[in-house]
Structures are given as C-alpha cells and as structure tokens.
Request: fold
Amino acid sequence: VTPDDAAILAAVTWCKAQGAVELVIPEGQFFVTTTANFDLANYSTLTFIGEIVSNIATAIPTVRIGSPSGNTFGLRVSGVNVKRKTLDTTLFSRGVELRNLSFSHVDIRWVTGFTFGVFVLGDQPNGGFSYNEVWLSFIHDNLINLKLAAAGTGYCNENVFHGGSFNHSSSYPAVF
Reply:
C-alpha cells in the first residue's frame, strides 16, 4: 500500500556509488508510483525475487533497466516481474523498458497489464540496444506485448530474443 519508490531509489543510488555490484529485489510486492530506474554500473547484476507493482498510466515506464543518458554494458538481469494493479487501456503505460544496453543478458519472467509490456529502446548517438540476449517468459495481457524501437541516431539491432508466451486472456479488452 505504501509506495516503495524511495527505498528502491536509495538502493540503486548506493549500488551505483559502489561500482559493479549485485542488487536483489527480495521476495514480496513493491509498489511504485514513478519509474523504478535500475541504471546500474556496467557489469552489475540485478536479480528479482519479488515483483514490482504499479498503476502508472503515463508514458514513463514502471521499470527501466539501463539509462537514457548513455550505454550500459554487461548487465546480468534475472527474474524481472512487473505487474499493473489494473489492466491499462489508456495507450500510455510501459511495463519494462530496456534502454541502451549492450552485451547484456536479461531474463524477463512476467509482465502484465500495460499498454506496452516490454519496450526495447536504443536512443544514444552511436549507441543503443545491441548484442544482448533477452529471455522472455510470461508476457500477457498487454495491449502490445513487445516493441522494439530506435530513436535519433540510436539503434536496436543484433540482439537475440528467446521464448516468450505472448497472449491475451478473454477478460482483456480487444487488442490491435
């Protein structure tokens, strides 16, 4: 019930000051009201045991892994689990944004209830989202389950995506 934004920000800030570390999201649900921005140092590890929950209905992502201001290299991310409390049909929300990662391994277990479930973006000059391995599991009940995008002079290429159960339940509104 109480937003966990400040605790997540404090943990990420501390980890960034240490350099390459492992950050673990422990068991339980963590409610956010703004982006949980995991812009960790190169070669860090991010492990989700618990889940991030939100009702953000704007164009900002619920969880961002990577940075809007530069490329991040060599992240090892596992168990990403992000849910909305209610299904979103506003055409704005983003569950997980993977942004400007290179040579990283990302395992997304569960994303549900957003306009864009997983939004992959490369937007850095002479950089972007490339040479990554992304494992997708349960990506359900999002208006658009997976979107790959590049902006400006950035790029999104030479990645390997594995798996992915992309589905919409009968209770979800019509999709396009």
Notes: The mean pLDDT is 91. Helices lie at 5-18. The longest strand covers residues 76-84.
